[in-house]
Amino acid sequence: MNEPVRFDAALAEALLRLGIAPIEVLMDLEEHWDEVAGAPWVGISRPVVLRDGELVVEATSGPAAGLLRYAVGDLHRRLDSRLGPGIVDRIAVRQPSRQP
User: Fold this and answer.
1) Collapsing DSSP states into helix, strand and coil, what is residue 25?
2) Rounded CA gap, 46 and 30, in Å?
3) Residues with Cβ < 8 Å from 16, sequence gap 6 or more?
4) First-to-last CA distance in the chain?
5) 57 Cβ neighbours under 8 A, 6+ residues apart
6) Residues 9-47: pLDDT tens digits?
7) Is the dihedral of CA 20, 22, 26, 32 positive or negative?
């Protein structure tokens, strides 16, 4: 009979196989986004996913996305400071998803 596997361990392994960052990193980004990101990201963006070293950030509007693309260098430095170097290799800023 197989030993039971803890759900959190199974989830962490599944995320790792998919290239998605550990749940603790994702939760930290989500919960402390405004503090981590700083200006001009506060209030006009949110982290969506961190996969294979790429952080996808969704802006609240097209113009906000354009503005934020110029600020990725500062955000990258803040993320390296918060999460450690190499956790985020790239940052992609996307326009908001269209709602049906």
Assistant:
1) helix
2) 8
3) 22
4) 48
5) 41, 45, 46, 47, 48, 68, 75, 91, 92, 93, 94
6) 666 666 566 656 667 778 888 899 999 999 999 999 999
7) negative
Query: pLDDT tens, 31-88?
Result: 999 999 999 999 999 999 888 889 999 999 999 999 999 999 999 999 999 888 888 9
pLDDT of residue 12: 61
* CA dist., res. 27 & res. 39, Å (int): 20
Closest-CA residue to 19 (of 59, 46, 48, 50): 50
pLDDT given for residue 62 in this prediction: 93
Pairwise CA distance, residues 79 & 44, whole Å: 17
What's the pLDDT score for residue 17? 66
